[in-house]
Amino acid sequence: MPDTLLATTSSLLTRERGLVWHPYSALRAQTLYAVRAAEGVRLRLADAEGAEHEVIDAMSSWWSTIHGYRHPVLDDAVREQTERFSHVMFGGLTHEPAVELAERLVAMTPESMRHVFFADSGSVSVEVALKLAVQVQAAQDRPERRRFIALRGGYHGDTAGAMSVCDPVDGMHAAFAGHVAEQVFLPRPPAARLVGGELRALDEVAVAQWCVEAERAIADHAHEVAGVIVEPILQGAGGMHIWAPDCLRHLRELTTAHGILLIHDEIATGFGRTGRMWAGEWAGVEPDILCVGKALTGGYLTLAAMLCSSAVADALEGSDTAALLHGPTFMANPLACAVASASLDLVRTHALDQVHQVGAALSSALASPSHVTSGLPRSVRDLRTLGAVGVIELDPPVDVTAVTRAAVRRGVWVRPFRNLVYTMPPYTSTPEDVAMIGAALLDAVAEVHG
């Protein structure tokens, strides 16, 4: 590394230390890399020791940069909108990028989704979904229905309402008990795996038992519950858990029978990530309310959306307020909407084919770890894939710093958590890129936890 670049990197990391918090990190306990450039699926990093690293971003910048960095179509969309106007308030005004994006979302989401509310982030879209469910129940003369049912192992965001429906014991927000609303939780649904292109439960008896427990819990709490919220089929930050479609089908039947709204949080799973455009498709289920985000803008700008059915919207419209009581300052930001529309065009024409290619490469890379010279480490409990998602589950907690450094030395950026080393690569990753990711992750695990 040139002396000037080393000095710049060292200065940057020194200036930041104790100044800026990073996600789920102590203020002064950082092991950071400085990003020098990003293009395609690769990042150019520099570390505090002066070393440069070109790495494949195996995380898609937390699952959002599905088309890679500096994509010419997305660059053009932002540039062209900037030349018109970058932002206007959405109260009392509208604009072409917002309407165009809403039309695209309605066209590509499940048939029942007909109405759109734009939010700043995925967490905020969950907040809006919860508030909408409470308002709709009140509009139907059931104001006592204000609680929610969620799943153990679930994660729905970091704001107060979203935290309340995350796993209350093993989740990242257990420290906030008493601060957030107390909700009702079902057990984590039994696991499923891909067999011949279909998701099948590993234990059908366990599925039947889970369905009985869900039926009992919903019957017991239906009088006070506005909605059930789930990450359909794949729980993300709660453990990268792939769960049985029969459980989701049963939840749909139960919520319909009891007049409870079913909310799908597809912020992480939507836009093809699991191998279907929407994870709910694995169960043939459509929700009453749908939350989307992360990949919506291709990772360019923060934007999310909540969609709902006409039945839900009509119930709200018939209430005393008629209004959905939420309104972010940057709601439907034109720049974000413009790049999101461009991103969705790429998703519609390319995403599923790309995901199937990435998924096949991931399955091969993680199912045949013969390149690990010492064999598969004993610490590995499970290897699993679904669509463009690959997971290495360990028995001990991951040494995040050590595994990250080991992967970076092998040319891959990864951010493990808890006992999971996982990848959600950009859809534009080549089979060679994915093979490199798989080898790097397995070798890093073998080095650190072998």
UniProtKB/TrEMBL annotation:
<keyword id="KW-0032">Aminotransferase</keyword>
<comment type="similarity">
    <text>Belongs to the class-III pyridoxal-phosphate-dependent aminotransferase family. BioA subfamily.</text>
</comment>
<keyword id="KW-0949">S-adenosyl-L-methionine</keyword>
<dbReference type="GO" id="GO:0005737">
    <property type="term" value="C:cytoplasm"/>
</dbReference>
<feature type="binding site">
    <location>
        <position position="265"/>
    </location>
    <ligand>
        <name>pyridoxal 5'-phosphate</name>
    </ligand>
</feature>
<dbReference type="InterPro" id="IPR049704">
    <property type="entry name" value="Aminotrans_3_PPA_site"/>
</dbReference>
<dbReference type="GO" id="GO:0030170">
    <property type="term" value="F:pyridoxal phosphate binding"/>
</dbReference>
<feature type="binding site">
    <location>
        <position position="327"/>
    </location>
    <ligand>
        <name>substrate</name>
    </ligand>
</feature>
<keyword id="KW-0093">Biotin biosynthesis</keyword>
<feature type="site" description="Participates in the substrate recognition with KAPA and in a stacking interaction with the adenine ring of SAM">
    <location>
        <position position="24"/>
    </location>
</feature>
<keyword id="KW-0663">Pyridoxal phosphate</keyword>
<feature type="binding site">
    <location>
        <begin position="122"/>
        <end position="123"/>
    </location>
    <ligand>
        <name>pyridoxal 5'-phosphate</name>
    </ligand>
</feature>
<comment type="function">
    <text>Catalyzes the transfer of the alpha-amino group from S-adenosyl-L-methionine (SAM) to 7-keto-8-aminopelargonic acid (KAPA) to form 7,8-diaminopelargonic acid (DAPA). It is the only aminotransferase known to utilize SAM as an amino donor.</text>
</comment>
<feature type="binding site">
    <location>
        <position position="415"/>
    </location>
    <ligand>
        <name>substrate</name>
    </ligand>
</feature>
<dbReference type="InterPro" id="IPR015421">
    <property type="entry name" value="PyrdxlP-dep_Trfase_major"/>
</dbReference>
<feature type="binding site">
    <location>
        <begin position="328"/>
        <end position="329"/>
    </location>
    <ligand>
        <name>pyridoxal 5'-phosphate</name>
    </ligand>
</feature>
<dbReference type="GO" id="GO:0004015">
    <property type="term" value="F:adenosylmethionine-8-amino-7-oxononanoate transaminase activity"/>
</dbReference>
<feature type="modified residue" description="N6-(pyridoxal phosphate)lysine">
    <location>
        <position position="294"/>
    </location>
</feature>
<feature type="binding site">
    <location>
        <position position="294"/>
    </location>
    <ligand>
        <name>substrate</name>
    </ligand>
</feature>
<protein>
    <recommendedName>
        <fullName>Adenosylmethionine-8-amino-7-oxononanoate aminotransferase</fullName>
        <ecNumber>2.6.1.62</ecNumber>
    </recommendedName>
</protein>
<comment type="pathway">
    <text>Cofactor biosynthesis; biotin biosynthesis; 7,8-diaminononanoate from 8-amino-7-oxononanoate (SAM route): step 1/1.</text>
</comment>
<feature type="binding site">
    <location>
        <position position="62"/>
    </location>
    <ligand>
        <name>substrate</name>
    </ligand>
</feature>
<dbReference type="InterPro" id="IPR015422">
    <property type="entry name" value="PyrdxlP-dep_Trfase_small"/>
</dbReference>
<keyword id="KW-0963">Cytoplasm</keyword>
<comment type="subunit">
    <text>Homodimer.</text>
</comment>
<dbReference type="InterPro" id="IPR015424">
    <property type="entry name" value="PyrdxlP-dep_Trfase"/>
</dbReference>
<keyword id="KW-0808">Transferase</keyword>
<dbReference type="InterPro" id="IPR005815">
    <property type="entry name" value="BioA"/>
</dbReference>
<feature type="binding site">
    <location>
        <position position="155"/>
    </location>
    <ligand>
        <name>substrate</name>
    </ligand>
</feature>
<dbReference type="Pfam" id="PF00202">
    <property type="entry name" value="Aminotran_3"/>
</dbReference>
<dbReference type="InterPro" id="IPR005814">
    <property type="entry name" value="Aminotrans_3"/>
</dbReference>
<dbReference type="GO" id="GO:0009102">
    <property type="term" value="P:biotin biosynthetic process"/>
</dbReference>
